[in-house]
Design a protein that fits this description.
153 residues, Aminopeptidase, 34% helix
Length: 153
């Protein structure tokens, strides 16, 4: 398994992360739009309203991201603590099964601990079996207490 470096994204990473973010969006059915994706990531980095991480396999140039992860803060009123929502995680097809997703997931846990969070949460599509297997192998458990409702506005 190659070494994977995971670092907190800086403004200089907006291009490489934005490109992988666009692949992530396409995975979930969105039309390609690299420029808008880069802009969205750059805005998150500027506003500091998300914690974004970039993963690179050893030897990968800084102009490329092999994977990325984006976490958003959420306040838990019941526990009176901050939680983190692992909202986005994606690994390029050509580097899958090389430990990139696992390294990102481990960094999510480390980040939550460093920031004093009470909990991490994530959602994935029911049919995303490979992601679900990874999450469960890494100690995540399926939420069975609450039901999620959505309404488009």
């Amino acid at each position: 398994m190659p070494n994977v470096a995971v670092t907190r994204a800086e403004p200089i990473d907006a291009g490489p992360v934005g490109e992988v973010f666009d692949l992530y969006r396409q995975f979930y059915g969105a039309d390609p739009d690299v420029d808008a994706s880069i802009h969205f990531i750059a805005e998150r980095l500027r506003a500091k309203d998300a914690a974004i991480f970039v993963a690179r396999i050893e030897g990968t140039p800084s102009s490329r991201a092999d994977g990325f992860m984006q976490l958003f803060p959420k306040l838990s009123t019941a526990r009176m603590r901050r939680d983190w929502i692992l909202n986005d995680l994606y690994v390029r097809d050509d580097v899958r099964r090389k430990g990139v997703a696992k390294a990102l997931m481990r960094e999510a846990v480390a980040w939550a601990k460093r920031t004093g969070a009470g909990r991490l949460s994530l959602k994935t599509q029911v049919h995303n079996a490979s992601a679900r297997k990874l999450y469960e192998r890494l100690g995540w458990r399926l939420e069975e207490e609450f039901v999620t409702y959505l309404r488009d506005v």
